Amino acid sequence: MKTKEHQITFAELVLSHKNDPNTSKEAARKFVAAGGLSLQEQRVYQALRTFCGKDGLTMGELAGFMAGNVTGNYFMCQRRISGIGQKGKAKRKELYVNNNGKPVYQSRDGYAIWWPITD
User: Fold this and answer.
1) How far is it, in rounded angstroms, from Cα 19 to Cα 118?
2) How far is CA 96 from CA 14, 75, 93, 115, in A?
3) CA-to-CA distance for 29 and 36, rounded, in angstroms?
4) Nearest Cα residue to 41 out of 16, 78, 95
5) With 0-12 CB in 10 A as exposed, 13-18 as middle and 19+ as buried, what is 31?
6) pTM for this one?
7) Residues 76-97 as b or e (16 or more Cβ within 10 Å = b)
8) pLDDT tens for residues 12-39?
9) How many Å separate Cα 52 from the centre of its chain?
10) What is the DSSP letter of 5?
11) Rg of the chain on CA atoms, in Å
12) Distances from the Cα of 111 to the Cαs of 1, 28, 79, 100, 114, in angstroms?
């Protein structure tokens, strides 16, 4: 149970799991406080804006365009794209709504395709 001295932050929910050790939760808090989450989101969004064409990009494709380690970029892109989408800066193309009322999105080889939303 959390005390008043320590309320669960959004960053902890996003960057750590309920059963993670306290060291992981502390690292998540420090990462956000230092601006790391914001910087990673900016990097992914800028790359999406720079490299995305009319066909959109999967996160694997986007990671291949970015400088640095492709595997590391892929996991960073995967972890940050949903937050970018929730902020209204990226979108997926909804194809239809299934019988359960859930949207079905366009994909390529089973991977989600994203497009940037520009101002």
Assistant:
1) 37
2) 28, 28, 9, 18
3) 10
4) 78
5) middle
6) 0.79
7) bbbbbbebbeeeebbebeeeee
8) 456 777 888 999 889 888 988 999 999 9
9) 16
10) T
11) 16
12) 37, 27, 14, 21, 10
